[in-house]
Amino acid sequence: MWTQSCCLILGLWACMHALPVAVDKSTEKPPAEELEPPQSADTGLHYDRYLREVIDFLEKDPHFREKLHNTDMEDIKQGKLAKELDFVSHNVRTKLDELKRQEVSRLRTLIKAKQDLNGQKGLTVDHQALLKQFEHLNHMNPHTFEVEDLDRLIKSATSDLENFDKERHEEFKKYEMMKEHERREHLKTLDEEARKKEEEHYEEMKKKHADHPKINHPGSQDQLKEVWEEADGLDPNDFDPKTFFSLHDTNGDGYFDEQELEALFTKELEKIYDPEREEDDMLEMEEERLRMREHVMNEVDSNKDRLVSLGEFITAANKKEFLEPDEWETIDQNPVYTEEELRQFEEHLTREEQNLNLKTHELLRQRQELERQQEQLNAQKVELQRAVVHMEQLKAQKTQAPEQAKVPSAVELLPGDSPLTQDFPAQS
Questions:
Q1: 3-class DSSP state of 204
Q2: For residues 258 and 293, is the Cβ–Cβ distance under 8 A?
Q3: Across the chain, what does the average pLDDT equal?
Q4: 231: which DSSP letter?
Q5: What is the tens place of the pLDDT at every residue in 251-290?
Q6: Which of 32-50 are b and which e, b meaning 16 or more Cβ less than 10 Å from the residue's Cβ?
Q7: Which CATH architecture describes the domain 190-337?
Q8: How many other β-carbons are positioned within 10 Å of the β-carbon of residue 65?
Q9: 158: exposed, middle or buried (C-beta count within 10 Å: 0-12, 13-18, 19+)?
Q10: Residue of 199, 233, 377, 428 with fewest CB within 10 Å of its CB?
């Protein structure tokens, strides 16, 4: 099983997640050994499998496992743990060498495929972008796993996962702008009456979506009490932060990871979003969930390790903001883009469409040129075939001419006979 420190530094804090479960006080939990181990969740990194396999084998080494448990988080980030690689067993190092060779081979195959694909499409190959695929290992030494490889792996995973949420926000913003762009473009295709009806329907859907119960501030006492009462089936008057933490620390590691936190907001999100309603967008729901989790992390995660410990949770529960939070504003109340950003986005789409049209036109021209050249080749092939047939005919004629010139006489001439008298006997 992944250790807490490993999840913390290498970004695998997401590896043990589960939804909160309703608690029945009359039912005892089964013994720990009878519980199924939690499933590992994908970190979203393109080298996720390699990362997991490396840590898996490092944890099998007693020396490294001890250092992992006892090394401070900042020291790990600064590469001090990576130096302990020199002290792991030979068997582990040999396996790590093999894993690295497999990873290098995978990346080379992937990059070759991308280059071939870009070449077929006539696109310029971005070599710098391709080289970034290797940043989590030292590709100059493709054969052995060294201290530098572990250091790069830790730093790459930490950095990539810290930027993961930012990239998700950017993708969501593009999604929302594209949705609005397509809506406006659709309106342009309608006549005045149909456009008016469409606008009225759009405004009606917005009002229906905004008509929902009050949203509790994520991480506040009111919000957690609602989970305590409705999901856990407990008396809200008996709410206890420590017990609540224990109930929702679903993997029992003593921390709330990101998935465990996000699961706490399901009740609030169900107030706003329903997959059966036309006006509700489930992608917006997931963005709202992400915003809630980020907010709580910023407020409660004091050491910024992307985990909430029991101590941090209890400290937050004693703050004034926990008891008297500000009103939570949803995505609808905080648009993710401005009109200026939408304008720039549409201009970008226009440029992309123009470039695509130019490329399409160029490909069409190249196709026509190839077809013309093919027609010329076909014509030349026909002419060549005709020439070959003509040559064969001439050759056949030359062969027949000498045979006709050498035809034998009907009567064989005797010596001394004249050709003029051979058919006329002498007069007596």
A1: helix
A2: yes
A3: 82
A4: I
A5: 998 999 989 999 999 999 999 999 999 999 999 999 999 9
A6: eeeeeebeebebebebbeb
A7: Orthogonal Bundle (1.10)
A8: 16
A9: middle
A10: 428
